[in-house]
Structures
1.
Amino acid sequence: MPQIQLLSEEAINQIAAGEVVENPASVVKELVENSLDAGSTEIHIDIAFGGLNLIRVSDNGSGMEKEDALLSIQRHATSKILQFNDLFRLSTMGFRGEALAAIAAVSKMTVMTATEVGTKLEIDAGEVKKVGPCARQRGTTVEVRDLFFNVPARKKFQKTPPALAAEVYRLVTTLALSRPDVSFSLCSSGKTVLETMAFGERAEQLIGSAFVKESITVSFEEGGLKLTGRLGLPSQARQNRMGQYLFINQRAVICAPINFAIREAFGNRLEDKAHPSYLLHLSLPPDLIDVNVHPQKREVRLRDEKAIRQVLQEAIRQSFEEPLRPIITFSPQEPISWQETPAFNFLAQEEPLTLFPVQEEIRVVGLYAHFLFIEEGEGLCAVDLCNARYRLIYNQLMDAKADSLEKQGLLLPFTVDCNPVEAAMILTHMEAIEALGFHMRSAGKQLFMIEAIPPFMREADVKAFILEAAGALQSFIGGSDIAVKRKEKLALLAARFAKNQKIFNVEEAVSIVRALKKTHSNRDCPQGTLTQVVISRDEIQRLFTH
Ligand code: ADP
Ligand code: MG
């Protein structure tokens, strides 16, 4: 028997499906893009169990005749291009002609579609089981049940249903922002979770009023390039890319050079690791972009990339030329309650320092900015209190047993409001966030009531932290060490926020240093920057000698 064998059609389809159909969100994406290509103005999406049990997309687009419907689920069947060169004049979302075939190969699919007459197809793992007439208005409904029922390996690597639903949510939001002229609705397990408003209010509805208020309008045109939308002020910057919506020719894309160009245009208006928020629509002649790089068409490549980058940066600089509103760094209502709470409750009992052979007494030389200088042996030790606190809190969170972390009840609970995508993500990951010492509950569609916070966190940082934590958790997928990785990530994030405290009094500083001496891995912070530096008397003397 020969070693090499041709793959069966079934195997080929399943392999191809792996490229296009990663998870429920990618199915929704393909189906909705087909609806958009069919000229629909209303698209309704239903999912159940995160999309694993059911994904249904209904539209009022062109619909298909029976023959076309049967062809549509074959591989490389498309009505959108005839030859390779057409790829460079592309104005539709789809073109590879493989999405429906790929989805059908890994699910139980029903297609109901009608032009004047209606047709219903039932397909099981890619095999057409039934074809018949049906009553339907013009348009198409594709129903996908039991996704991945015949590819258990892929099913195993799916996130939890709430996390999958949150992804679908984010995707539909993105699609709704890409096409303000089309109305969208999304139901998850029977509940309507998103129903788009008209064009004008959509950004506010989907990204949030804070973004709309704290952003500037961009409107720029040069040659065949047009850039419109909103650019978030530095106050809207995030630690991740969740606030970035870029559409090229109405397609939501990832385009690293463009992201880079935008980031660069912000210059030092932003801190090093901050990512700007934006909602930008770029339109370009279709022959300047190549979308055929990525099977899901998420990544695009630009021809003449340099010129496009330059024009973009110019556009953004011009938009910034209006004077920027000052960024508020201090607000009088900034909660003071946290200062009344002891910064280090976990240090309450002052045990003798036995772990390290250091002197019992800390002989303080002085406190300068966020550095505490103490005498150490024959020299001077400078402790960076921010880094020290970063290390301490990280260790505390990592070493804590489940549910043993202290919660600081608030006398005045406060609310955190967010946009629908953020709310879905927070809900999904609420338990993990609460385990850090928060107590929160959902208080309306996009509102959370915060009733307790960890003692090390400032009220002012709570919203940013929760959003970042939910975003970070959202990006995890299954795997054996997932629990440990999640714990590490959360601890790192929370501890980093603790660094925001920059002002210390001497008692606080001393208690931080005491605790630092007692904790493990205390030489540097979790990101590897030193917590303390010792300078010997000789070294100091040398500074004064030549
Ligand atoms: P592609 O979108 O790349 O052409 P698909 O497999 O996604 O490939 O779809 C195959 C074909 O089926 C499309 O080219 C289109 O003609 C038809 N089709 C798919 N979905 C719809 C729909 N919702 N309405 C009308 N036609 C559709
Ligand atoms: Mg398609």
Note: Residues 161-178 form the longest helix (18 residues).
2.
Amino acid sequence: MNRKQKRDIPAILGGAPLFESRMGIVRPALPREASLRSRFVEVLTNGKIANNSRYVRMFEQKLRNYLQIDHCLLVCNATSGLMIALKSMQLKGSVIVPSFTFSATIHALVWNGLEPIFADIDPDTFNLDPRSVEEVLSRKVSAVMAVHMFGNPCDIDSLSALADGNKIQLLFDSAHAFGSRYRDKLIGCFGDAEVFSFHATKICPIGEGGAVTTRKVTLARRLACARVFGDPGNSNVRFPGLNAKMSEFHAIVGLENMKSVRRHIQKRHKIVQTFKSNLSQLPGIKFQKITHCAESNFQNFVIIIDKNRFGMTRDQLQKVLYAENILTKRYFYPPLHRTIAYKSYYKKYDCKLPVTNEISRNILCLPLYSDMTIIEVKKICHAIVQAHLYAPEIKKKLKRKGNSKGGK
Ligand code: T4K
């Protein structure tokens, strides 16, 4: 067997792994140390490192200008951003949400004593389906919380029309969507409020961090109070707020990192194009649809595996890629109504969420980061093509492995 043939055999069948070292799912694009040093030294020297000081305020101003929004409050992560947004919106009763999301979306509701009502997602965009939202609307509902999944903006027009028509509020969990656009406007200025994440895994990573944006002045005032324990500034706390403040260190990194967001998004578009052109000929692989009104920042790149046409399941493909040293994630599996925390919702919702269940069972998130090379992308695609070509042998091998494990 020559070297080329050996490389073509998937590592799971004994070939050499395509990558010598592990290829993570995410690699945060961080600023150079030199660009941060003087500001870090400044705050280390003057000791003003917390309580919405100079750099938090500067970062907020930059975000307001960039997003073209009147009010923007930095927070220590998107989870607390969602918690204070829901609190400040003074919601009651139930909120319509997708079950196909990260746990934080639902946790934030439950921490506010609100009841999640799960609606199904669209089979192509993987975002909350406005028709399903309409079906579950009732008098108990005080808001809809939609998620721009993987950076792909929701059907904001339909969701806004539904919210206005039913006099309920609309909150966007925009954790994935910093830099994404809808009808040429940046995400951040829609609905009653939006919440971004600047976590290490996001497109503008600063470690831990987030931001809440709104056009509404009264809501902005309550948010500002909610972020500091519910304290308007005189220690006479108005309601049980959080400590959701961002530190100066994080704000310094954010100010620097924001400069490259547009460039990173452009690079990600090229990477996604390469993924798509190398994988689109394969049977049984589907991509997330971005509608003509939307521009995704490609926070993540996911594929949906049809096991009959592709030749193996999502979980089998994940094992094949792992053997090639390519890490992937099952974002988001299981859907929230099937997790231990929310199992009380299983009976009521499982049969009402067929698309959520189907997408969640078959979705695989591939590595994607801004400084990924086209060669790396092509190697990942090659591994997926080989998995399809060698599917019968791979399945036999995995079955034998499973049997021998079971026998021990
Ligand atoms: N809403 C939605 C829709 C969300 O997806 C999220 C969070 C939130 C709200 C809440 O946002 P935050 O409160 O976090 O701001 C991760 C993240 O922890 C989470 O922020 C994110 N969404 C979620 C989708 O993914 P894990 O446990 O799946 O990822 P983890 O920690 O395994 O990291 C993934 C990969 O990233 C690792 O393989 C290595 C790499 N990595 C990770 C970290 C932490 C780095 O290279 N550097 C790092 O510092 O949760």
Note: The first strand starts at residue 71 and ends at 75.
